[in-house]
Structure prediction request, 489 residues.
Amino acid sequence: MTSQFGMIGLGTMGRNFLLNVAEHGFKCAGFDIDAAKRDLLMAEGATLPIEAADDLAGFVSRLAARRSIMLLVPAGPIVDSVIADLVPHLEPGDLIIDGGNSHFPDTERRQAELAARGFEFLGVGVSGGEEGARHGASIMIGGSPDAYERVRPILESASAKVDGEPCAAHVGLGSAGHFVKMVHNGIEYAMMQLIAEIYDLLRVTGPNADSGSVVADRDLANVFAEWNTGELNSFLIEITATVLRKTDGETGNSLVSMILDTAGQKGTGKWTSQAAMDLGIPVPTIDAAVTIRQISAQKQQRVTLANAFAKRSSRDHKFVIDNAEHEEKAAAGPAASIGEIGTALHAAFLLAYAQGFAMLRAASDERGYELDLVEIAKIWRGGCIIRAAMLEDIRAAYAKEPGLANLLLDQHFTNVLSKNTDAVRRTSLTLTAAGLPGMAFAATLNYLIACATERLPANLIQAQRDLFGAHTYQRTDRVGTFHTPDWAS
Prediction:
């Protein structure tokens, strides 16, 4: 019996995704140049309708006509190399699916090149890591709706489910799948940095605040676990509690305290910031998250500068958590309470989503993606890294008003953020007072303030531009474009 679905790239993601598909009853074939990876696939899939091929020709021959072949290989030149090797074995009408984190301009180029040769191509974003690949991911499909229909049953079966609904959908035309996945990752950067700043704040001002203390980090784990039972319910809050509970077997310290403070990145956050700049859409929380990762990589420079600058003690504004009740004790100075910090983090998450969805709206209009924001919010509710309870409210907002330009304009979100702005402000001030870098929180707060400010000081900027470059300006009292030739007189 010929296979219905093929996978090239049997690393962690590709192997687990293929096992997932096979477990749902679809006969599958896999290929990787690494024999050890092929052997692992067959060992783990011994009871499943799955097979592995030793070479590309044998792999393609195992697939049913009008083949559907997914690639899960590292983004970049490797994708082009695999496609170049694969195409001579294919026939017109065959479908190639790129499931990696490819940059959307590369997806557009590949779609055009393959279409000219008679092949179908889908750019597909897959989120959820190893666990999602094996047991249910969030899958964002871009390209031809007809091409998607060919593999819809397979991709929906391999996706996560929320209330019985698959977290896989055709999100838009062209390179929409990889564009949406890029924005997903940008929001992920923002949410992770916001959590990290809160962890930093609680670590130095909370109970048992000795760096590396197992007791201290377990106390903080309890705070995050408690938050995860309420409006902050989300995958990232959940795993924060998990990592804070882990003890290092070698030193007996909290494991997270033993990890070097240099965060890695693969480029999708930077791509999000760059694309947002091109679209003219502000995403300051994402920008700040990318920037702080870049600063974190400059470890030796930070050590040098830390020794050169006097450090102000954060304990001037210490507050203590009652571990049994999570009640706030009397706080000195401007310190925010634990309750306020949780409220602020919830509001900051909403604002990160608002920035990402505003970017999706603009890209849909400018690039002709025809994005379905309701569907995107729906499939992000399960499987993906940024899944969170609040996405149901976001889906409801776009279902009610599909043309919504920014979530801040939805009455529900206006009410929530109006009520919680002070908590965001106090949390940002507490970070500053504690001498901690709260770049993402400050950017988020100022995004909200600026978006809700009727008159910004951009009038001064326009006057300066007109003076040094005759760039002209508009007036508040009459229509037209104006230039002042004699600013100095």
Remarks:
- The CA atoms of residues 77 and 153 lie 30 Å apart.
- Residues 182-451 form a domain with the N-(1-d-carboxylethyl)-l-norvaline Dehydrogenase; domain 2 fold (CATH 1.10.1040.10).
- The beta strands are 5-8, 28-31, 50-53, 68-71, 95-98, 120-127, 138-142, 161-162, 165-166, 168-172.
